[in-house]
TrEMBL record:
Keywords: Cell outer membrane, Ion transport, Membrane, Porin, Signal, Transmembrane, Transmembrane beta strand, Transport. It comes from Cedecea colo. Its main location: membrane. PANTHER family: OUTER MEMBRANE PORIN N-RELATED (PTHR34501:SF8), PROTEIN YDDL-RELATED (PTHR34501). This is Porin. It holds the Pfam family Porin_1. It is found in: Cell outer membrane. InterPro entries: Gram-neg_bact_OMP, Gram_neg_porin_domain, Porin_dom_sf, Porin_gammaproteobac, Porin_Gram-ve. It is a multi-pass membrane protein. Belongs to the Gram-negative porin family. The keyword Transmembrane applies. Residues 1-19 form the signal peptide.
Length: 367
């Protein structure tokens, strides 16, 4: 079987709709992409208020090895623009860095820092300009979002048997060195996703990931369970102009709630932080792209946790946003996060999670 043309990126490529081709010769192709986000946020919560400007750049490369085999790679980096000169180091980060091979009939295999398979389905609701898709997915939380040391195999059209049915299997090696924050550690884990995409805009998907928790996580997180797990299922309908997506997810022994350190307090009276025993998460988001460039969006997100006999919401908000595209490279946006958490709930009083609204406004240049 001869290898058909393969897009430069084999996993879903979110946030960028175009890239600048900087090299294409002798079966080698290199695209450069980026975005500059000039954004200001307004909130009574200090950490959510103020300048949030940043720049993001990356490249995607592809080389044809023979009629059935191609090599590929991607790197992406983000630089904060809201800190003093010389202090960017703690605020800038590598988002993606992976390389791999794709075979015409055997699928693709890549390794490095990449998206976890849980995000294959979570992406159904990640459509808002600023907020959204944040009830249970966080970077470097096992295989929920972007993660390090993941080996990913992807097969397309279910081995040629079912068009549009894509299977992914992922392994993550342990990351437990002392320089890594305890909440961002992980033991060995495996995950898988199954997503069906129809020709008329309907997508259905489910994904599972399970990992061992490190000794430090069991000893210092308020939760001594030996394994962390997550499972989600979602549906999306996308006509090109209208999009609506919905995801339901559950996690066990995985999601951090509360204070910024690992010091536990009295859950009834004092501030505390711990890894939840369980979370149940709902996300629904929709937008419509008008021909004149306007794209209004609405969303609802909720995460309810259980920990040590306590239950309550740790995420609950509605979102209203609008984005205007001047052209494919430049847009402006306003995104209003309407917090629906109860100030008087036991969980909020104990954890200190913010219940403030946030308004974000800005402009984006991308290529």
């Amino acid at each position: 079987m001869k290898l058909k043309y393969m897009p430069l990126l084999l996993v879903p490529f979110y946030g960028f709709t175009q890239a600048a081709e900087i090299y294409n010769k002798d079966s080698n192709k290199l695209d450069f992409y980026g975005r500059l986000v000039a954004r200001h946020q307004f909130s009574d919560t200090v950490s959510a208020d103020g300048d949030k400007t940043y720049a993001r750049i990356g490249f995607k490369g592809l080389t044809t090895i023979n009629d059935t085999l191609q090599g590929f790679g991607q790197w992406e980096y983000q630089i904060s623009g809201n800190v003093a000169e010389g202090q960017e180091g703690n605020h800038s980060r590598t988002r993606l860095a992976f390389a791999g091979l794709k075979h015409a009939s055997l699928g693709s295999l890549d390794y490095g820092r990449n998206y976890g398979v849980i995000y294959d389905v979570e992406s159904f609701t990640d459509i808002l300009p600023v907020f959204g898709a944040d009830t249970y997915t966080r970077p470097d939380t096992f295989m929920q979002l972007r993660a390090g040391g993941v080996l990913t195999w992807r097969g397309y059209d279910f081995f040629g048997l079912v068009e549009g049915l894509n299977l992914a299997i992922q392994y993550q090696g342990k990351n437990e060195d002392s320089s890594r924050a305890v909440r961002n550690q992980n033991g060995d884990g495996v995950g898988a996703s199954l997503v069906w995409q129809s020709d008329y805009g309907l997508s259905l998907g489910t994904a599972y990931a399970g990992s061992n928790r490190t000794d430090a996580q069991q000893q210092k997180s308020g939760n001594n369970a030996g394994r962390a797990e997550s499972l989600n299922a979602g549906i999306k309908y996308d006509t090109g102009k209208f999009l609506i997506g919905s995801v339901y997810a559950e996690t066990r022994n995985m999601i951090w709630a509360g204070g910024s350190d690992w010091t536990l307090g009295d859950a009834g009276y004092g501030k505390w932080g711990a890894v939840t025993d369980r979370t149940r998460n709902i996300e629904v988001a929709a937008h419509y792209q008008f021909d004149n460039g306007f794209r209004p969006s609405v969303a609802y997100l909720q995460s309810r946790m259980d920990y040590n006999g306590i239950s309550g919401n740790i995420v609950k908000y509605a979102d209203i946003s609008i984005r205007y595209f001047f052209n494919k490279n430049f847009s402006a946006h306003a995104d209003w996060k309407i917090n629906l958490l109860d100030d008087d709930s036991r969980v909020i009083k104990a954890t200190g999670i913010s219940t403030d609204n946030v308004l974000a406004a800005g402009m984006i240049y991308q290529f």
